[in-house]
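Good day; I would like, with your permission, to put a structural problem before you. I would ask you to consider whether the tokens describe a fold that such a sequence might reasonably adopt. The full record is reproduced below for your convenience:
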Amino acid sequence: MVKYERICLPNGLACIYNEDCSTPFVAVNILYKAGAKNETEGHTGFAHLFEHLMFGGSENIPDYDARIQAAGGENNAFTTNDYTNYYIILPASNLEAALWLESDRMAKLVLSEKALRIQKDVVVEEFKQRYLNTPYGDIWLKLRPLAYKRHPYRRPTIGCSVEEIRNASLSDVKEFYRRYYAPDNAILSISGNIKAEKAHRLVEKWFGDIPAAGHKKETLPAEPEQKEERRLLTHGKDLPADAIYKAFHTDKRISDEFYICNLISDLLSDGNSSRFYNCLIKGKASFSSIDAYVTGDTDPGLFIVSGKISPGISPEEAEKDMENELHALVSGNIPEKEIRKVINKTESKIACSSASYRNKASELAFFEMLGNAALINGEYEKYENISSEDIVRTGCKLFEPENSSTLIYLKS
């Protein structure tokens, strides 16, 4: 059981504190509800670009990383379609240094033409290296717009093109900062060797006078129900194998359907006892590797099945074998022993994750963003209540051909 206290500052900053005396360290996590879905058409990649800009220095702290290192800490960040997350890990005695650093760049980030030019070059090189010059790197550049037609999830986090990153203007960046990087659009969570009362006192000191931006939740266009099978055939250079990617629309992260789909993905592909491994890798050997997972987005997301096809197997045969396994799972009763084994493994993963103060800080902020921080203690029950009937019912709807978008990636 993860114990925590939740307090909201008058300026709208949601604060969550967890005391963990098992460590001499503390994790400071700040989540901004600004991701790729909040970008506008023609101006994609902004959220990720801004993540880089946040390390460029603020009014009172020109060298952010040097201050972190001086305090004996480490830091990092990541951007998703739904949010951008920053964290610092450092000795608990230096907590105030972390709060000073984060508050200064929330209120007084320095944005200049020079800083923007440098970070655009960095992101463009990342785009080329990870998405254009890596085998299968451009999958999301192709699969997202195939699966989504209206919702901004159709745009990858990195951005739709190098040109859109290069075209980002300083005025655009400043507007993004003003709109989203404010206390009333952020969640601050702290986990580690610190009393909640003391932590909150320091948070009030450093964040209490930062003005709210009057942020209003945006209404994003809903993705219409998919009613036709979609397919795309593409070719790539220097690929080690042909590959298949299938995307099926599913519900949002906070829904009961997410937990059922997550369990389905584990039944299919989690470990050497999974169905995919036994039937499609070890058995018929249609695939050299195959995986299934749920994107877990805050708005309705995707159930992904992807696999690298074994030599000598045609894409048509491999896809048929993949589909046969999907339908075999939901065609009848699933042994209770098989379900129980996967549920136990899932609960073990949750327990291990909750043992880390770093993970607790991150997860408390994430669940608070979803609207219910108490889910950090409530997910066990979600999985315990899943039955064979739930899996069959959900899977039959999920794996309908009309709900699928298939990308076949062939070697040139």
In short: The radius of gyration is 23 Å. The first helix runs from residue 46 to 53.
